[in-house]
Amino acid sequence: MHIISSLFKRSKSADTVSDFPAWRMGLSSATSWSWGVSIALGMHFMHVFGVWPALAWMVGNTLALPLLGAIRHYLPSSRYWTNISILYLLFAFMEFMALGLNLTATQNALSGNLFNTTLPSFSYISADVSAWVAMGIGISIVFYIHRYGFRGSVLTDIGQYAVQLVAVFLLAVTAIALGDSTDLPLVTEKGESWWLFGFFGIFVGALSHFQQHQRFESLGNSNNLRIGLWGGFFFGLYMSLVFVSGFFFSNHFLLGFLYLIVILAVATSTMDSAVAGMQRIAVKFYLPYWVGSLVALITVILWPLMQGKTLDSLFNIMASVRLPILITLVGLTILYEIFKRRGVVAHPQNFLSFGRKIGFILKERP
């Protein structure tokens, strides 16, 4: 009984990350923001939409974390977004998608399906076996974060990012050395109508991810901009190598193996961040952290039910859900800041006090 209790006992420092510098938290944000599907999507978009639309998506992806840092820095009232109860419908949806899509990324990378994309496939194990392996990885991550919490997620990110960056660097270099370049279109007919949606759909994406707000909040508001800029820098290094790889990626076993390593490093980072985010959401609603762990565990077990969609269709679904919400939210926040500085509206504390009384605003949690 003592052994079982010690296995499930929460680490005392599970939610303490104040000793990390801004660059380390930025790196953690970049790793968890990468998602296991980012490398597949980036190269897939180069084939389907063309080089320039794919590059627009990659640039928007890279600027997403600096945008979050800038908004939290220059629009102080945006820091209250994580206290608006109704927004947790969006936050919870995105954490669910982060966990489910990265389980799919893990399974498909192992089975060689590669998300029904145009990329060459490499099958290591069958689809059924890879599904069980992915679930095993997901359950292990849930139990790890259940014990070690948000700190456990941030701690592992530096190792995961190192593996991710080294593997994608070797992927780019090896692909170039093999010399099998692909004649990619600059812009396809689909790309002409998609590139603007692709850019803005991912550019505002980090605003909808609670796991990112969790990282930015953790070191105090004075570090918001630094975390965002560091996050953009580390993510940009990774994405630039994905872009280069897209021109030369071919049906070669070594490339497939490196591709698999990248996906496993990125997917596990995003999954552990999603579980930590679910725990924090539970605490925000005055529930014990283990409720978040339980929701994450159920998500992993029920994950096979969300399969069947193509990768780009899943991105379009996410972007379509969050884009209008986030544009409206940012617009209202900018208007509020303008009116507040002109003395037209009251101090935010007055709104917070009223909001708490009607349940629209959540109380601050330690």
Q: TL;DR?
A:
With 366 residues, the chain is mostly helical. It is built from 13 helices and no strands. The longest helix is centred in the middle third of the chain and has 52 residues, at 127-178.
How do the helices and strands line up, and which of them pair or pack?
Layout: H1 2-8, H2 22-34, H3 38-48, H4 51-74, H5 88-111, H6 127-178, H7 189-203, H8 210-218, H9 224-248, H10 253-284, H11 289-302, H12 311-341, H13 348-358
How many helices? The count is 13
Number of domains: 1
Distance between termini? 31 Å
Order of helices and strands: HHHHHHHHHHHHH
Shape: globular
- Sheet having the most strands: none
Strand residue percentage? under 5%
Helical residues, percent: over 70%
Question: Could you explain how this protein is built, in words?
Answer:
By secondary structure, the protein is mainly α. The protein has one domain (20-358). Helix content is 73%, strand content 0%. It contains 13 helices and no strands. It has helices spanning 2-8, 22-34, 38-48, 51-74, 88-111, 127-178, 189-203, 210-218, 224-248, 253-284, 289-302, 311-341, 348-358. The longest helix is centred in the middle third of the chain and has 52 residues, at 127-178.
